[in-house]
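Progress note, sequence design subtask.
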């Protein structure tokens, strides 16, 4: 189990750890822009309809659209969390690559350094 990432596929794993946060960052930026542009107008229209300032009785559909926009905001927050978690893990893996050490060797080095010698 500790040998899933080895010599032959380490570069692809590090590339995955670099490209996935970039994709998540782009997704969060696009969904945030869409959320901020559309939710403001939809929320303003819904408040006017609830207060009775318009004649339309289609409040249920407008609330559904508003919930869809808020789910878009949730997706943006989720993508930001992916950026931070995978980005920090990718930075750690990049540090190990620069030291020319695998993660197994790094863990073993720390584990054996803490053991008392007899």
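Output:
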């Amino acid at each position: 189990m500790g040998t899933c990432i080895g010599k032959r596929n380490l570069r692809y794993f590090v590339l995955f750890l670099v490209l996935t946060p970039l994709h998540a960052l782009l997704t969060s930026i696009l969904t945030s822009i869409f959320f901020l542009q559309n939710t403001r107008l939809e929320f303003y229209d819904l408040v006017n309809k609830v207060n009775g300032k318009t004649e339309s009785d289609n409040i249920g559909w407008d609330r559904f659209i508003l919930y869809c926009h808020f789910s878009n905001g949730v997706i943006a927050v989720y993508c930001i969390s992916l950026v931070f978690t995978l980005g920090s893990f990718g930075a750690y893996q990049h540090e190990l690559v620069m030291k020319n050490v695998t993660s197994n060797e790094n863990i073993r080095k720390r584990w054996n350094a803490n053991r008392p010698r007899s």
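Residues 53 and 62 are 15 Å apart (CA to CA). Work on this subtask will continue into the next period as scheduled.
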